[in-house]
TrEMBL record:
<dbReference type="GO" id="GO:0050385">
    <property type="term" value="F:ureidoglycolate lyase activity"/>
</dbReference>
<protein>
    <submittedName>
        <fullName>Ureidoglycolate lyase</fullName>
        <ecNumber>4.3.2.3</ecNumber>
    </submittedName>
</protein>
<dbReference type="GO" id="GO:0019752">
    <property type="term" value="P:carboxylic acid metabolic process"/>
</dbReference>
<dbReference type="InterPro" id="IPR018833">
    <property type="entry name" value="Rv2993c-like_N"/>
</dbReference>
<dbReference type="GO" id="GO:0016853">
    <property type="term" value="F:isomerase activity"/>
</dbReference>
<comment type="similarity">
    <text>Belongs to the FAH family.</text>
</comment>
<dbReference type="Pfam" id="PF10370">
    <property type="entry name" value="Rv2993c-like_N"/>
</dbReference>
<dbReference type="Pfam" id="PF01557">
    <property type="entry name" value="FAA_hydrolase"/>
</dbReference>
<dbReference type="GO" id="GO:0046872">
    <property type="term" value="F:metal ion binding"/>
</dbReference>
<keyword id="KW-0479">Metal-binding</keyword>
<feature type="domain" description="Fumarylacetoacetase-like C-terminal">
    <location>
        <begin position="56"/>
        <end position="264"/>
    </location>
</feature>
<feature type="domain" description="Rv2993c-like N-terminal">
    <location>
        <begin position="1"/>
        <end position="50"/>
    </location>
</feature>
<dbReference type="InterPro" id="IPR011234">
    <property type="entry name" value="Fumarylacetoacetase-like_C"/>
</dbReference>
<keyword id="KW-0456">Lyase</keyword>
<dbReference type="InterPro" id="IPR036663">
    <property type="entry name" value="Fumarylacetoacetase_C_sf"/>
</dbReference>
């Protein structure tokens, strides 16, 4: 099932089931556990990020070619950082280039996002996917200057500005997306393909990540995991490519769909 979260014309938030013909019907029940397609037509006024996360965990350097293009060795253990939940942005809504705390080096990163459906502690690789409610597209927007020059060696600052965690367009349940580690994934900036790879190339697979993360931390239902980006990011290009006002950036993942966001400047 492809689950969407949306506002109706009076601002009421509901969950829907997206069908191949583009229509949406209302979903009943808890979308993270046992969503039920009611078959009743949904009145979608505004598409939202498919989930309001309780925590946003992010993995860095999870593709060898991306580590290489950044001059970094492949990590021995998954590299963890976090984003605040206020960074979440809806599909179609703008990524805002910071001007108060200015950054002129804002970059894109296509990522497969895993959504945890029930509390998870000490999962094994074998039972890890049983905790998954579904998968969606994410863009790990990154201010490289605040990440690498002014972040004191911490990733968080450069990764957690408002609007730096777009997610969508829908949540695909595991019965429909059975293997998260065999999906084409790409970023398109305006009409140019910037990243074009496969989740089969993750250093740490999705089950490994869930087992590793839950070994120390209870992954509560509603936790999302950004699983890392492949090569082709803007900072590693010659000359570097930074997001500009007026740009349109899209992340597309096989079996999920396309997450598109315009880029604007913060009004100060
Ligand atoms: N360079 C960098 O920040 N990369 C990470 O976000 C990643 O996804 O690997």
């Amino acid at each position: 099932m492809k689950i969407t979260r949306f506002e109706d014309p009076v601002g009421h938030i509901s969950y829907g089931c997206l069908h191949a013909d583009g229509s949406t019907t209302l979903v009943d029940g808890d979308p993270l556990h046992s969503p039920v397609d009611t078959g009743k037509p949904a009145n979608v006024a505004k598409l939202l990020a498919p989930i309001e996360p309780v925590d946003i965990l992010c993995i860095g350097l999870n593709y060898a070619k991306h580590a290489e293009e950044g001059g970094k060795p492949c990590p021995e253990h998954p590299v963890l950082f976090m984003k605040t939940t206020s960074a979440v942005q809806n599909p179609g809504d703008p990524v805002v280039l910071p001007r108060t705390l200015r950054s002129d080096r804002v970059d894109y990163e296509c990522e497969l996002v895993v959504v945890i459906g029930r509390d998870c502690k000490n999962a094994t690789e074998e039972d890890a996917l049983g905790y998954v409610a579904g998968y969606t597209c994410g863009n790990d927007i990154s201010a490289r200057d605040w990440q690498s020059m002014w972040g004191g060696g911490q990733f968080c600052r450069g990764k957690t500005f408002d609007t730096f965690a777009p997610m969508g367009p829908c949540l695909v349940t595991p019965d429909e997306l059975t293997d998260p580690n065999n999906l084409a994934i790409k970023t398109t900036l305006n009409d140019q393909v910037m990243q074009d790879w496969t989740t089969a190339d993750m250093i740490f697979s999705v089950p490994k990540l869930i087992a590793f993360l839950s070994g120390s931390t209870t992954l509560r239902a509603g936790t999302v995991i950004f699983t890392g980006t492949p090569h082709g990011v803007g900072f590693a290009r010659q000359p570097p490519v930074w997001l500009q006002p007026g740009d349109t950036v899209s992340v597309e993942i096989e079996g999920i769909g396309v997450l598109t966001n315009p880029v604007v400047e913060e009004e100060v």
